[in-house]
Amino acid sequence: MAICVGSKAPDFVLKSMTADGTKDVKLSDNFGKSNTVLLFFPGAFTGPCTTELCGVSGELRNFEESGAVVYGISVDTPFAQDGWAKANDIRVQLLSDFAKNVVADYDLDLPDFAGLGASVSKRAVVIIDKEGIVSYVQVTPTPGDLPDFDEVKATLKSLSKVNA
Questions:
Q1: What is the pTM of this model?
Q2: Closest among 67, 66, 19, 74 to 44, alpha carbons compared
């Protein structure tokens, strides 16, 4: 079942690569503190994903100033994500959903990606407010399409007014 605006966001714990190795990141640790932007993307080292995450990295300060924490989520290993991030100066914190549990919980599975017989995440943006409620969902029509970040920014701006 697709994740819906107004529903409670499914909590998760995913691995992220740090200078000290992998660490756990728990979504609900943000509840009561900040809005959260989840950027689901099909895979590291692909053109549209690199364009998206590099673009967001360039605007990361704007997201943070609006009171949001931003995570990129893919089914890549944290090691592959780390190599990709370093090669492309991606500063968004990347989370590995290697087991595809979060992709399933958020109903974002894209089966048989590019005819390769493997499933990945659809490209999507999910915004979760400070209370853990889904405030915005955008799933792109194809993996090659990028999200409408003007809508994302407008949603964050309206949430920051509510939380002010």
A1: 0.94
A2: 74
CATH number reported for the structural domain that contains residue 24 in this entry: 3.40.30.10
Is residue 1, in this structure, part of any structural domain at all?
A: no
Distances from the Cα of 149 to the Cα of 77, 145, 153, 154, angstroms: 26, 12, 6, 8
pLDDT digits (tens, 9 = 90+) for 26-84: 999 999 999 999 999 999 999 999 999 999 999 999 999 888 999 999 999 999 999 99
3-state DSSP helix/strand/coil percent for the chain, to nearest 5?
Answer: 35, 30, 40
Q: For the chain, how many structural domains are there in total?
A: 1
Residue 6 lies in a domain: no
DSSP conformation letters of 33-67: T-EEEEEE-S-TT-HHHHHHHHHHHHTHHHHHHTT
Q: Report the C-alpha gap between 27 and 133 in whole angstroms.
A: 12
Token code pair at residue 140: 């792109």
Beta bridge partners of 34: none
